[in-house]
Amino acid sequence: MQKTREEIPEEFKWDLSKLFVSDEAWQKDFDSLKSCVDRINELQGKLDHSAENLAEVIKRRDELSRVKDRVRTYASCNSDQDTGNAKYLAMVDKIDTESAKLLAAVSWIEPEVFAMGEEKTAQFCKAPVMAPYLRYIEVLLRDKPHTLSKSEEALIAGAEDALSTASNVYKVLANADLKFPVVKNDKGEDQEITQSNYVTLLMSKNRDLRREVFTSYFKVHEGMRNTLAMCLSGNVKMQVYKAHIRHFKSALCASLHNDNVGQEVYDSLIEAVHESLPAFFEYVTLRRKCLGLEYLDMYDNYVPIVPNFHLEVPYSQGREWVLEALRPLGDEYCAVVKRAFTERWIDVYENKGKQSGAYSGGCYDSPPFILSNYTGTLDSVFTLAHEMGHSMHTHLSKSHQTHLYSEYRIFVAEVASTVNEALLFHYLVNKFAKFIVHQLTPAVPWQSNHVRVS
CA-CA distance, 397 to 401, in Å (whole number)? Predict the structure, then answer.
């Protein structure tokens, strides 16, 4: 059965005290948000008076964003580690509701900047005080065709929390409310299906078990199909609505706007995938033949096609592999990776109610935390390397940029993570090349203290 949060050893939990030592400390920062807004609003109607006022409002808004990020990160991380914890779920709702009010309160800034006119804005940008904010203004001006009046912007900002309802409902439903049945695993033991071990169970050589797990998992979802459909519908409608009121051609164009990526780039990526489908179909055919199946079902996509092969990678070994694989990136890089492992940046194991999947998160004033649901599979090791790439990207960006410019766009976000996966793959192939050759000839059992292959 799934462990509770209390049953997970502290060494395998992220240390959120690096952000706030207590919930009371969190509350103090939360309470300070209103004064941050008041300081910003002192400048309303005065931005066109001087370059100093323009620079100051950008600075103060950045300070508000930084505090809000700290508060939101602490609440969301605490909630994600146990989505059934009503206290932290309430804290997330509290900050999200407050954030909508804050956005509404300062939504006058963009319309007021645009009302200054390009000539005055360009003149102000020549002042030394504006030097740190030139890129900010450049990006801001791209939003002019999609920015509404002050009153309209306030209405949209105030509705932001309500517009997120569909995605919030899905998150709680998927991670806290859905309950899956118990099956007999390969060891003959009762094992509850969870969001995190679902794929691991589908790696079983026992096709009957795979079929049972797959069917049981989706039967639970089928029981909630109307609710899930409404969550999806609500999210799509929200995206379409926001794109419409901001004068985008489509929700897709609106989604690509912040990354300054043209739709032709998106379309070309899809086209490239379609062009490569024949190679994928060849792989599917090969998989079916290797498994000796008449047809390939969805629950046959995760089981290894190499016979007599079983791999268990304890977290300590996976951590060592990731660190060794990243050596080509240099001592400085690897020293920070070591800190991630030893200073508890990572929430390692699954527990009851924990957010499924994995992500790299945090904020400017915290370590780039990693949420993981490590299950001892090779896939778990690659996920660890992947998320470490994100966290290192975040760490290096924070180390060399101010808060205002520290976030990076999604269009480049997967570069660091994918490079880490490639390095891990290269490392493991070289490390076990001799063993792989043996596996391709007569099957030879192999064992180490950490990894078991049979």
Answer: 6
What pLDDT digit, counting tens, does each position of 164-214 carry? 899 989 988 887 888 999 999 999 999 999 888 999 899 999 999 999 999
- pLDDT by residue (tens digit) across 236-269? 999 999 999 999 999 999 999 989 989 999 999 9
- Greater model confidence, 159 or 54: 54
d(CA 108, CA 55): 15
Between the alpha carbon of residue 106 and those of residues 196, 247, 299, the distances in Å are 40, 21, 50
- The DSSP code sequence of 118-156 is HHHHHHHTTSGGGGGGHHHHHHHHHTGGG---HHHHHHH
CB 223 within 8 A of CB 217: no
> What is the Cα–Cα distance from 424 to 321, expressed in whole angstroms?
7
Which residues are within 8 A (CB) of 203 and not within 5 positions of it... i.e. 6 or more apart? 302, 303, 304, 377
Does position 84 have pLDDT exceeding 90, yes or no? no
Enumerate the active-site residues: 387
Q: Looking at this protein, which amino acid is placed at residue 129?
A: V
Number of neighbours of residue 249 by Cβ within 10 angstroms: 10
Confidence check: pLDDT of 450 > 70: no
